[in-house]
Protein backbone atom coordinates (compact mmCIF):
# COMPACT_ATOMS: atom_id res chain seq x y z
CA UNK A 1 0.00 0.00 0.00
CA UNK A 2 1.16 3.55 -0.67
CA UNK A 3 -0.21 7.03 -0.05
CA UNK A 4 0.74 10.68 -0.40
CA UNK A 5 -1.44 13.49 0.86
CA UNK A 6 -1.52 17.19 1.58
CA UNK A 7 -3.76 19.05 4.02
CA UNK A 8 -4.71 22.68 3.47
CA UNK A 9 -3.12 25.21 5.75
CA UNK A 10 0.08 25.13 7.77
CA UNK A 11 1.15 24.62 11.33
CA UNK A 12 0.14 22.33 14.16
CA UNK A 13 -3.55 22.13 13.26
CA UNK A 14 -2.81 20.98 9.69
CA UNK A 15 -0.19 18.49 10.90
CA UNK A 16 -2.61 17.07 13.48
CA UNK A 17 -5.30 16.67 10.85
CA UNK A 18 -2.88 14.84 8.55
CA UNK A 19 -2.04 12.47 11.41
CA UNK A 20 -5.77 11.84 12.00
CA UNK A 21 -6.30 11.08 8.32
CA UNK A 22 -3.29 8.77 8.21
CA UNK A 23 -4.53 6.80 11.21
CA UNK A 24 -8.07 6.62 9.81
CA UNK A 25 -6.63 5.35 6.50
CA UNK A 26 -4.81 2.56 8.32
CA UNK A 27 -8.04 1.49 10.00
CA UNK A 28 -10.04 1.63 6.76
CA UNK A 29 -7.40 -0.37 4.86
CA UNK A 30 -7.58 -3.16 7.43
CA UNK A 31 -11.32 -3.48 6.76
CA UNK A 32 -11.34 -3.10 2.96
CA UNK A 33 -8.15 -2.12 1.11
CA UNK A 34 -9.89 -1.11 -2.13
CA UNK A 35 -8.47 2.34 -3.01
CA UNK A 36 -11.89 3.68 -4.07
CA UNK A 37 -13.47 2.47 -0.82
CA UNK A 38 -10.66 3.82 1.37
CA UNK A 39 -10.87 7.21 -0.34
CA UNK A 40 -14.66 7.36 0.05
CA UNK A 41 -14.42 6.53 3.74
CA UNK A 42 -11.64 9.10 4.28
CA UNK A 43 -13.81 11.72 2.61
CA UNK A 44 -16.83 10.94 4.79
CA UNK A 45 -14.60 10.97 7.87
CA UNK A 46 -13.15 14.40 7.04
CA UNK A 47 -16.61 15.78 6.22
CA UNK A 48 -17.75 14.81 9.74
CA UNK A 49 -14.88 16.56 11.51
CA UNK A 50 -15.33 20.10 12.74
CA UNK A 51 -12.70 21.68 10.50
CA UNK A 52 -12.45 24.10 7.61
CA UNK A 53 -9.45 22.22 6.21
CA UNK A 54 -9.57 19.94 3.19
CA UNK A 55 -7.08 17.42 1.86
CA UNK A 56 -5.78 15.92 -1.34
CA UNK A 57 -4.67 12.29 -1.30
CA UNK A 58 -3.56 9.49 -3.59
CA UNK A 59 -3.89 6.01 -2.10
CA UNK A 60 -3.06 2.79 -3.89
CA UNK A 61 -1.97 -0.81 -3.86
CA UNK A 62 0.83 -2.51 -5.76
CA UNK A 63 1.01 -6.28 -6.28
CA UNK A 64 4.73 -6.95 -6.08
CA UNK A 65 4.41 -10.30 -7.86
CA UNK A 66 2.89 -9.13 -11.14
CA UNK A 67 3.19 -5.33 -11.05
CA UNK A 68 -0.56 -4.65 -10.99
CA UNK A 69 -1.04 -1.22 -9.50
CA UNK A 70 -4.30 0.52 -8.69
CA UNK A 71 -5.00 3.81 -7.00
CA UNK A 72 -7.63 6.44 -6.32
CA UNK A 73 -7.01 10.18 -6.17
CA UNK A 74 -8.87 12.88 -4.28
CA UNK A 75 -7.89 16.08 -6.09
CA UNK A 76 -4.20 15.29 -5.75
CA UNK A 77 -1.60 16.17 -8.41
CA UNK A 78 -1.44 13.58 -11.17
CA UNK A 79 0.64 10.46 -10.49
CA UNK A 80 3.35 9.96 -13.12
CA UNK A 81 4.10 6.54 -14.57
CA UNK A 82 7.41 6.35 -16.38
CA UNK A 83 9.49 3.74 -18.13
CA UNK A 84 13.25 3.23 -18.26
CA UNK A 85 13.08 4.60 -21.83
CA UNK A 86 11.84 7.94 -20.47
CA UNK A 87 8.25 7.57 -21.67
CA UNK A 88 6.16 9.37 -19.04
CA UNK A 89 2.38 9.51 -18.61
CA UNK A 90 0.59 11.81 -16.16
CA UNK A 91 -2.69 10.30 -15.01
CA UNK A 92 -4.63 13.55 -14.85
CA UNK A 93 -7.87 12.89 -16.71
CA UNK A 94 -11.12 14.01 -15.10
CA UNK A 95 -12.24 10.37 -15.11
CA UNK A 96 -9.13 9.41 -13.11
CA UNK A 97 -9.57 11.73 -10.15
CA UNK A 98 -12.24 12.44 -7.57
CA UNK A 99 -12.89 15.66 -5.64
CA UNK A 100 -10.87 16.93 -2.69
CA UNK A 101 -11.55 15.27 0.64
CA UNK A 102 -13.81 17.19 2.97
CA UNK A 103 -16.31 18.89 0.66
CA UNK A 104 -18.95 16.42 -0.59
CA UNK A 105 -19.78 13.58 1.83
CA UNK A 106 -21.21 11.31 -0.88
CA UNK A 107 -18.43 11.79 -3.44
CA UNK A 108 -17.08 8.74 -5.24
CA UNK A 109 -13.52 8.08 -6.31
CA UNK A 110 -12.62 6.18 -9.49
CA UNK A 111 -9.82 3.64 -9.44
CA UNK A 112 -7.04 3.77 -11.99
CA UNK A 113 -5.32 0.51 -12.87
CA UNK A 114 -1.94 0.12 -14.47
CA UNK A 115 0.60 -2.68 -14.74
CA UNK A 116 4.14 -1.63 -13.95
CA UNK A 117 6.56 -3.61 -16.11
CA UNK A 118 10.09 -4.34 -14.92
CA UNK A 119 11.92 -1.01 -14.81
CA UNK A 120 8.72 1.10 -14.76
CA UNK A 121 8.21 3.62 -12.01
CA UNK A 122 5.38 5.49 -10.32
CA UNK A 123 5.98 8.94 -8.87
CA UNK A 124 3.60 10.53 -6.39
CA UNK A 125 4.32 14.05 -5.19
CA UNK A 126 2.75 17.09 -3.59
CA UNK A 127 2.02 20.31 -5.44
CA UNK A 128 5.11 22.00 -3.96
CA UNK A 129 7.20 20.11 -6.52
CA UNK A 130 5.43 21.61 -9.56
CA UNK A 131 3.75 24.87 -8.49
CA UNK A 132 5.41 28.28 -8.63
CA UNK A 133 3.92 31.65 -7.83
CA UNK A 134 3.06 33.53 -10.99
CA UNK A 135 3.30 30.41 -13.20
CA UNK A 136 0.59 28.16 -14.53
CA UNK A 137 0.78 24.70 -12.93
CA UNK A 138 0.93 23.18 -16.43
CA UNK A 139 4.42 24.69 -16.76
CA UNK A 140 5.59 22.78 -13.69
CA UNK A 141 3.90 19.56 -14.84
CA UNK A 142 5.56 19.84 -18.25
CA UNK A 143 8.93 20.32 -16.52
CA UNK A 144 8.25 17.20 -14.45
CA UNK A 145 7.43 15.10 -17.51
CA UNK A 146 10.53 16.36 -19.32
CA UNK A 147 12.78 15.73 -16.30
CA UNK A 148 11.45 12.22 -15.78
CA UNK A 149 12.03 11.54 -19.46
CA UNK A 150 15.63 12.65 -19.18
CA UNK A 151 16.42 11.11 -15.78
CA UNK A 152 14.46 7.83 -15.85
CA UNK A 153 17.41 5.75 -17.01
CA UNK A 154 19.58 7.02 -14.14
CA UNK A 155 19.95 5.52 -10.68
CA UNK A 156 16.67 5.26 -8.78
CA UNK A 157 18.36 6.15 -5.49
CA UNK A 158 19.01 9.71 -6.69
CA UNK A 159 15.96 10.34 -8.85
CA UNK A 160 13.94 12.29 -6.26
CA UNK A 161 16.95 14.49 -5.43
CA UNK A 162 17.52 15.19 -9.12
CA UNK A 163 13.83 16.02 -9.62
CA UNK A 164 14.06 18.48 -6.71
CA UNK A 165 16.99 20.20 -8.41
CA UNK A 166 15.66 20.17 -11.97
CA UNK A 167 11.91 20.66 -11.49
CA UNK A 168 11.70 22.58 -8.22
CA UNK A 169 15.03 24.39 -8.48
CA UNK A 170 15.93 23.21 -4.99
CA UNK A 171 13.89 24.03 -1.93
CA UNK A 172 14.00 27.68 -0.97
CA UNK A 173 11.16 28.08 1.50
CA UNK A 174 8.41 27.22 -0.96
CA UNK A 175 5.45 25.00 -0.22
CA UNK A 176 6.22 21.62 1.30
CA UNK A 177 7.48 19.02 -1.14
CA UNK A 178 6.94 15.30 -0.76
CA UNK A 179 7.88 12.67 -3.30
CA UNK A 180 7.25 8.93 -3.20
CA UNK A 181 8.96 6.93 -5.91
CA UNK A 182 8.07 3.30 -6.57
CA UNK A 183 10.09 1.39 -9.14
CA UNK A 184 9.64 -2.23 -10.12
CA UNK A 185 12.83 -4.25 -10.23
CA UNK A 186 13.50 -7.74 -11.58
Describe the structure concisely for a colleague.
This protein is 31% helix and 23% strand. It is built from four helices and eight strands; from the N terminus they run βααββββββααβ.
List strands and helices in order, with pairings.
Elements: E1 2-7, H1 11-31, H2 35-48, E2 55-62, E3 68-74, E4 80-82, E5 88-90, E6 111-115, E7 121-125, H3 137-151, H4 159-166, E8 179-183
Antiparallel strand pairs: 1-2, 2-3, 3-6, 4-5, 4-7, 7-8
Helix pairs in contact: 1-2, 3-4
**What about the largest sheet?**
4 strands, antiparallel
SS summary, helix count = 4
Q: What structural class is derived from the secondary structure elements?
A: alpha+beta
Order of helices and strands: EHHEEEEEEHHE
The chain-level mean pLDDT equals 91
Radius of gyration: 16 Å
Largest beta sheet: what is the strand line-up?
1-2-3-6
Question: Can you put this structure into words, describing what you see?
Answer:
The chain is α+β, with helices and mostly antiparallel strands. The protein is built from 4 helices and 8 strands. The chain has helices spanning 11-31, 35-48, 137-151, 159-166; strands at 2-7, 55-62, 68-74, 80-82, 88-90, 111-115, 121-125, 179-183. The strands form 2 sheets. Strands 1-2-3-6 form a 4-stranded antiparallel β-sheet, with helices on one face. It has a 4-stranded antiparallel β-sheet with strand order 5-4-7-8, covered by helices on one side. A hairpin with a 5-residue loop joins strand 4 (80-82) and strand 5 (88-90). The longest helix has 21 residues, at 11-31.
Amino acid sequence: AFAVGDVSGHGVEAAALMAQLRNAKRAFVSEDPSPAEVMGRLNRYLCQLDTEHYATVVFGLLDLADGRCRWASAGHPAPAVFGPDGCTVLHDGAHERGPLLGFRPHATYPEVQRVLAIGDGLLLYTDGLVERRGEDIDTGLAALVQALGELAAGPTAHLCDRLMEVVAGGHEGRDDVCQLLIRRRA
